[in-house]
## 1
Amino acid sequence: MNVEFPVATSPAPGVIGVDWETRVDFERLRQHRIARTRQLMAQEDLGALLLFETSNIRYATSTQIGYWAFNKGERYALVTQEGRPRIWDFGSAAKAHRLQLPHMYDSTNSVGGNTGLQGAIGPEAGLHSRAAAELKQVLEAEGLAGERIGVDMAETGVFLALQAEGLNVVDGQQAMMKAREIKSPDEIILLTQACAMVDGVYQDIFEALKPGIRESDVVGLAHARLFQMGSEFVEAINSIAGERCSPHPHVFSDRLIRPGDQAYFDIIHVFNGYRTCYYRTFVVGRATQAQRDAFKQSREWMDAAIELVKPGASTDEIAKVWPKAEEFGFENEMDAFGLQFGHGVGVGLHERPIISRLNSIDAPIEIQEGMVFALETYAPAADGRSAARIEEELVVTADGSKIITLFPCEELMVANAY
């Protein structure tokens, strides 16, 4: 069997900056992201962007206060074409930003804000109307109150308060998704480094897989190892084995792994704001022909998709090489969504482009240089219980695609073989 093994094609230089080597330039990263945001604002004819979604806020403002605050709606930011972005943050976090990034924030554009913590503070407190009035005042001062104001994911009460102030609020999420779909060289380094960390975790998982270990034990192992290597957040570890493989439940349990179990894992973590989504499949002790066949099929679907990834290609071309839902045991494409699947990866887990038979056939997106996305395939085994799950992350270059998920996945690996 002639196998072409992937090799490192973008640098993963380490988790800290040094004086003797060029690594990530974080100021250049900040400037790229705000420039991309404003570029898409102009394309979408938006006078301003009002952001509540945490990944959008980090992308546009380079602020974050920890994942306990993720998408709780209490933080919001405003971006216009001129000047610095504004952030309304959770209490003392506003003061912290002024200390952390003094060239970007002071008491005029980093202040406390609150819209009620998803309704925990009721509307009778007036926080929705207060925030909307304050935002209108800022927009009026910049001559933007009559412009189209893009909003990404505001709570219903906030959205209604903005309308009550007479602001022309429109969908701003698409502008942010389009801004984030093309990655800079610094972003690609961070995404590659995040994948390099998962490469190491998979080595640890492969060595640890043996009868008696629980799915949840693997989750604990992965969390510990990622934090040791510098991860800032572990969003999820899918850990699935045995009869739980088919259908895919998307959640781990305390099930004991047994001899002959097929097991697959997805590691989703964050390094300096940038995520991974990275599946691998193993079998414990010994493999059956049904398990090997499922893996082979999943790999073939993956390779057929990768072959098509290049600038100018279209996402419908990729979706068409994957089987229809009915061909692998599901009623329709909605029922099977997320199994034969592609998605952008960046400061968010699911960015543009989203690739599947559910959406890509009728609404294809052109693949562009600088995109980074994951491709996922799934093949149930003929034994009715096992399944194979493979995922590769790719950088789209002028010459095609480069894989940045490098832990071996060319053939089914047997852990602790008998």
Note: The chain has a mean pLDDT of 96.
## 2
Amino acid sequence: MNSVNAKSATISERNKLTKAGFLRSIGLYLCLGMGFALATAIMPATAQRVLLDKIVALVDEGVVLQSELESRLLEIRQNAARADRPLPEEEVFRKEVLDALVLENLQMQFAERVSIRFTDDEVNRVLVSMAENNNLTFDEYLAALNEAGVYLQTREQVRKQMTLQELQRGMVNRRIQITEQEIDNFLNSETGREVMAPDYLVEHLLIPTGSEETPAVKQSKLKYAADLFARIKEGDNFNAVKAAAQQSESFQILSTDFGWRKAEQLPTLFRELVEGMAIGDVEGPIEAGNGFHLIQLANKAGGTEQMVKQSNIRHIMLTPNEIRDEQQTERAIRDLREQIINGADFAALARQNSDDDSTVVAGGDMDWINEGRLPPDMAAVIDSLEIGVLSEPFRSQTGWHIAEVLERRVSDLSTIYIRNQAENALRNRKFDLELQNWLIEIREEAFVEFID
């Protein structure tokens, strides 16, 4: 190929870059490198030289290697074969994959400039999730990767995908603007109402009946269903009761795994009941043409009702430093506590001594904090405090604290929650298009030269 400067890309080349569906289908963002390819060349006379790798594209300050291209091509061919999915003709295929690698390279350079990095521990957390998805322990998964010879490649590919996702989220979201009018229009639309409706996770069991059964048999099945219902109401686990009943020879037990569904996706028989149930509630026996049903609302997500517990907290934090070690810091925080107990003003001491920059001006006042928003080590202390009682000194990841709960309340944050959810839904709708626009822009502004 001849040298190409991305700033003078033709309209045809730009259109190819916007084929987001195809680029994603060939693994633009979620591919796993398979290793380096070796190219050999026969030299004149008796000499033979092995070409280990070569540059196929210059990308601003980076390069794309032949080994990267061949590895990605191999990966995509294997995935396409497993999915029985056709690929385009070879020349187009190689061009599209090379373009994808150029875009990846540009993004990784961006990420380096803005210091997006992930630690080994953060990568390990993703690998743990991958292991669980494969029904393996973490050690078993690592052993499998090592045996296949792809452990290091997998780690680096995971790190790369985490980096790309973080970069794209940051760069694209700042380009997306959602107006209050857009949120109002969305909430008033049928689509908006469907999106905002809660999702339900329903447990279910059925004791089936048949039309040929006598009234006495049906009555005994009803009594059996009522007994199971009573056990669950008294505190027995729904699934444990169902499993025991299925192993019993008394009656046949059937079950439907509904998964997460919105109310209108549930059977009509259960729909209205589920909407009025709280998590953990059980209903039954519900008589229908096919038998007696028991259901339990196992969980609920989303919806418009958001009642949140909040605590108004103030604290003083001291952190160890160059002139005050751990023990000296602990003694200092205990001394401040004694002063407050003896009548000193909490706010004044906080302004004079606290190392928490975010609350020092407010005299240590953290304002209203939603339940679940504090770090676990601090929440454990705060949740156990009585209102107006000064805590004993305690250690968190950030330092030594003394804290006091000034007030507690339950707030209805439904309106705020609904509008935030609507904004997120609208942002997600715009994200893919804005991502493609951003990729086109950085490609046009970059220096790219393909090496034949």
Note: The longest strand covers residues 400-412.
## 3
Amino acid sequence: MAEITLKNLSVRFGAFNAVDDVSLTVKNGEFVVYLGPSGCGKTTTLRCIAGLVKASSGDVLFDGVRVNELSASERNIAMVFQFVSLYPHLSIKENIVFPLKARGVAKAQIARKLDWVTEIFKLGDELARYPSALPPGARQKVALARAVIREPAVLLLDEPLSAIDEQFREEMRWELGHLQRQLGVTTIYVTHDQREAMSLADRIVLMNNSRIVQVSEPDRMFFEPIDVFAGQFIGSPSMNLIDLAPVEGGLKLGDGDVTLTALRDRLPAWALSSKRPLKLGVRPLNVHLTDDADGVAIPVDDVFSVGRERFFSFRIGDTIHQGVDKRRSPSSSGGSVHFDPAGLLFFDAATGRRVDAEVAA
């Protein structure tokens, strides 16, 4: 296992900064997920760690040792890509042990390692079959077994589940997390799928525009986003963002006449007296359509169900927002929109950074 440290890492392709001054330490045995939209720099960072892309500046260190000049084969890493690249003419057993045979490992040692990964990945019934006979999820599991059998110091995974059908993806996601904990190998995983990041990661590294936006545990990333981008990228449905203005009696929402009057005594004093333009961030799970009297009279556009949850949409100005319908009867009419004070976040309208009492003081 290894600790990976990136120090002021940058990768430039001509005038384009693919990775811009990234610093991070991945602890020994940690499962870190790089998350972000397409083109944000996460895969280039992974390939730089692997030695497939050369850093333009900055350093990559394994256990404190600079490895910038080492090739991928010299870094003791294993990498699994989005599209499985198994040898179709070899059996599953032959595919798995291929890296060991290529290195000239003794047959007895190969047999011991094959027994080990076969047990871990539960592949005993598949060894004599060929890749074409396996479903996509099983083929990706074989690719992982082939990577792990080398006992790498670092396991690098680039969108390994995105090419798998949804019916297999959930199962593979659970198995991958379980296997990583069992193996204890330092793992860096790249994805644009927030569900994968939230369910797998010890820590998430959220990237945008070639830079790190936030590094934190999944729960903290969800409940304490550092800025507007983090708040909206994490969560489905996305966080509601509403312009705020302090007025007599509370905080006015948007350009209309809607004011959080009923919540005045439960809103932070610094927000009520703020001189800077603010945006209110509130997740749909903290906005309820309710029969209670402490809500806000906002016209509701639509009520709809997703599985067991009932959602509703409402409009402030020209923007449509979403919340959860918690009325006692789905057929009841009317109701009002309640904002849970504990779930309200405030962002600087100019910078997009989250603001709290300490920052506002």
Note: The mean pLDDT is 88.
## 4
Amino acid sequence: MDEVLTISQARPPQPCTLVILGASGDLATRKLLPALYNLEVYGRGLLPPKTAVLGFARTEMTPEGFRQRAREAVQRHAPGGLREELWNRFAERLDYLSGLERADGFERLKQRLQAIETARGLPPNRIFYLSVPPDAVQDAVVRLDGAGLIAPPRGEHFSRVVVEKPIGNDLASAMEVNRTLRKHLAESQIFRIDHYLGKEVVQNLFVLRFANGIFEDIWNNRRIAHVQITVAESEGLGSRAAYYDPVGALRDMVQNHLLQLLSLVAMEPPVSLDPTAVRHAKANALRALRPAEGSRVREQVVRARYRSGVVDGQRVAGYLEEPGVRPERRAETFVALKVFVDNWRWSGVPFYLRTGKRLARRASAVFVVFKEVPEILFNRGAWLRPNVFAIRIQPDEGFSLDVLAKEPGLDLAVRPVRMNLRYASEFGQASPDAYEHLLLEVMSGDHTLFLGASFVRTSWEFVQTILDQWQRDPSIPLGSYEAGSWGPPEADRLLAADGRAWFEP
């Protein structure tokens, strides 16, 4: 019989009130409310008893109107859909308060929280999820503290604040956000969220590396030739020009998602599963990144933006034709990088990263490519494909190992075969949504899947050198690629210069 080992260090989630600031916005509608519903219904009642969810936003709406909006959100976005017989159990937890922008808004929030806690018999354990624009985060934290809504960090009851990415728009603003957070909150009360860390396969990358003895001896520059990380999006800008056009792909995706994946691949084994130890090991991997300075930016970084093309059989507009885009901002929708982790384990091993919008399809994967065998025996006079360990994050979650095997027959013919694990077929159930994991971890007070201040600072330090060079040298090319392709030819040449090519995720 297969043995299943359950390891959990986190405390069980405690009853609390989860306040969603910006509850009428897109994130709450698409992700937060469906995730909370799934924890209630499909998570076998993982929401603690009596726990309440209070929406707080500018939009004028009654509590009943908010419940109806939540119902529509669940119907549209929850993977399992809405189960009529169980909806009322979740809806009973929901409440709503408008007036986020009012001068007395946070005093009114305090009064509503006290009323909810009295009515439901809840302790004053509070989570404030800042589902607000990045430039509103600091003001929200200041006003929460000013209204007396932040409890002492070591008190009988907890106050926790969840901050969505991006943390700042550059190194200076990120440090300013962190200073504001630390002025009003202890680090133990801050949960900087990156939803990629809640994805099942991303978490499993950590388990694969450190729960299996076969990997440690080969997870280094003696056995690995290079690593590729691709995070591809098929959708375009949509209605997000106001956010995306001043930001671009480097800030939006590389500074957080791709560097998170790189740190999980490159990190040293942490001394324990304690969240502080895990976060320290990941930050150390980023500290070893070789800065992309001076001429290296031109040589090792490719940027481009999409032009019109065909995606999923439909003709789509180019980036400059999207409503709200300002061409003078020169925002990139694609970026590819060649980077190095300058430490003992990874010295000389290139990491190739790429991400973009309007690519051939939505897919994310990590490819660990092992060194080729010597040019003797089977490799004499014929090129043999290297072994590749692939971790597929989306859409077909799982991992695979490409090896070479003899083809059946009287001749000695060698061809690649794939040892493949698909989560859906192996475990017989769909993976939980990333936000289900992360919301539950906030309720438990576990920081393992959240960003530390040092990771935010170090990732911005790396990205800032590239941004500064782009700003100083306008002659650095900003290429283009056809929507529905895998990016610009310059990205292919980045690998071709090393005799390599991108793997298709």
Note: Residues 17-196 form a domain with the Rossmann fold fold (CATH 3.40.50.720).
